[in-house]
Design brief:
The chain contains no helices and eleven strands. With about 130 residues, the chain is mainly β. Strands 2, 4, 5, 6, 9, 10 and 11 form a seven-stranded mixed β-sheet that branches. The protein has a four-stranded antiparallel β-sheet with strand order 1-3-8-7, with no helix packed on it. A hairpin with a 6-residue loop joins strand 4 and strand 5. The chain starts with a strand and ends with a strand. About 30% of the residues are buried.
Amino acid sequence: QVQLVESGGGLVQAGGSLRLSCAASGRTFGVYAMGWFRQAPGLEREFVGVIRLSSGSADYADSVKGRFTITRDNAKNTVYLQLNSLKPEDTAVYYCAAGLHNYGGLYFRTSVYDYWGQGTQVTVSS
């Protein structure tokens, strides 16, 4: 089992920044990749980005590319999502997820993740 806890959400004005954290505990040695998703009210959960823990390589959704950055600190079992140039449409609950297997380029799918955090709210005011 892997437990994930997100933190760092809050209320920010458009153009501002936030840094979200996802702390993992439990059997973290088996985690291959950590993803970030978000879900706004009435919408499906949306892929934001993913980082592969061994290589540090990351992929992003087009909607956040150039504004959001995912990093990891393997020693702390923590992954970060830096959100810059925030827009009102970025308002959502942000979730981190852990994937135990190498799925190549399929990390945009929620189904490839094995564990999920409870989420943290990000609200961007205009």
